[in-house]
Every structure is written in structure tokens, then in C-alpha cells.
Amino acid sequence: QVQLVESGGGLVQAGGSLRLSCTASGIIFSINVMGWYRQAPGKQRELVARITTSGRTNYADSVKGRVTISRDNAKNTVFLQMNSLKPEDTAVYYCNVITSLRDYWGEGTQVTVSS
Q1: Of 61, 62, 68, 107, which sees the most CB atoms within 10 A?
Q2: What are phi and psi of 87, to 5 degrees?
Q3: What does the pLDDT look like over 59-96, one tens digit per residue?
Q4: Using CA atoms, how far apart are residues 8 and 26, in angstroms rounded to an integer?
């Protein structure tokens, strides 16, 4: 079955860094886009960043310049390097994979930034 295994979340002080990773397994269709979304308490889930197979990227305005998304196509893995973290970055971060048939979601990893 399809699995998206996320790792790298945790507690960090403001100004610190975290690197999230997500590895997809069991997907038999072509993966087109891999990305990260986040959801803070009481707020809607929002896009953080996404990357296509060819390496084209999109970032939310709130994270531009602080976050870098990358992927290893051979390993179906996407990374999110987050620097200069702010308390407002606190949220559950979800991995998202879009294939030629449908999209999949990870279970989420908590990122907490203390002030």
C-alpha cells in the first residue's frame, strides 16, 4: 500500500532550522509534484512549497527566502529545509504527493517554534 513517511519535525527556538523529509513508497503511478503543506490550530491547511519532477518550485510568500524545497526523484523523497524559523511557522506539516492518478497525504509532523 502507499505510504508517505515524514520525519524531521520537532521543537526549535526562533531563528533556528529544521529539515523535513518525506519518502513515498508503494506508488505505482508517475509522481508529478511533491510538496509540503501546513496547518496551524484554527487555520486552514496552506501550501508551504512544492516541486515538480523537473525541479520547478513554488513557495508561499510567507516562507520565501527562508525555506528551500528539494527532491530526490530516484528515492521518491522530498525535503524541506527551513531556516530562520518564526513562532508563526508553528504547525503540523503534511507531505503531499500528486501522481498521474491521484494525490496522497502524509500523516503530518509537528513543528513548534518557541519565541
Answers
A1: 68
A2: -55, -35
A3: 999 999 999 999 999 999 999 999 999 999 999 999 99
A4: 21
